[in-house]
Amino acid sequence: MTPEDDRGEADALAPVIPLFGERSAASASSREESVPRVRRPFFAPAPDDAPDAEVLGASHEVDVDSETDKAAAVQAASDAMLRKLRSRSLSEREARTFLAQRDLSRDAVEEIVADFLRLSYLDDAALAEQLVHVGVSRKGEGRVAIAQAMARRGVPRDVADAALDAVGDDDAERALEFARRKAMSIGGRDDDAALRRLVGQLARRGYPSSVAMTAARQALAEARRPAVRGPRFD
Length: 234
Description:
elongated; mainly alpha; 11 helices
C-alpha cells in the first residue's frame, strides 16, 4: 500500500472523541443553556443591586414597633389616670396636666380625655357640684372661697357660676351658722380676743369682712347669754 493510500484511509476514519479532557466551547455552552437556573432561597442575602427591598423591609418593622410602643404608652397612661380617679375626681384641665407629664403627644392626650368624657369619668359640672357641697356642708365656706376652690381645680367659669347659683346668695346665714358652731369652743377668752379669732376663721372661709364681723358678734353674744331656766317647783 502506498503512502497516499495510507493517508486516504486515515482520512476516511471517524474522528476520535476523547473520554476525558476539556469539552469544546460550543458543547459546554449548549449544556449550560439546557440546565435550569436555580432560584435563590428566600432566606439568602439579597443581591447588591436590590437595596430597596432591604430598606423597605427595615422601615416597615420600625413603623410597626413605633405604633406598638405608642399604643402601649397610651394604655399605660389611661390605666394610671383611672387609678387616680378612684381616689380623687379630676377636672378636664387636671386630667390634661396629668397626662402631659407622661410624655404623650397632644393628640394622644386628647384621645384619652375624649374617651374618659364619653364614659363620664371626667365631668366638670359634677366636680363643681361636689366642691360646692363640700364647701357649704363640711367647711362652712362662703361663695368667694368656693369659687376660688373651683378656679384652682380648673373648673371653667361658666360651669362654676352655674353650680354657685344653686347655693344662693345667703352668705350671712351660712356665716352665722358656722360662727355659732365655733363660738361654743372659744369659751375662756376675753371678748376682744374671741371676736378677732372668730372673725379670722370666717374670713379664711371666704366671707366678706362685714358679714364675718356681724356673724361673729351675734354668735358670741348668744354663746355668752345665760341660759334661761324654767320655773322651779319646790
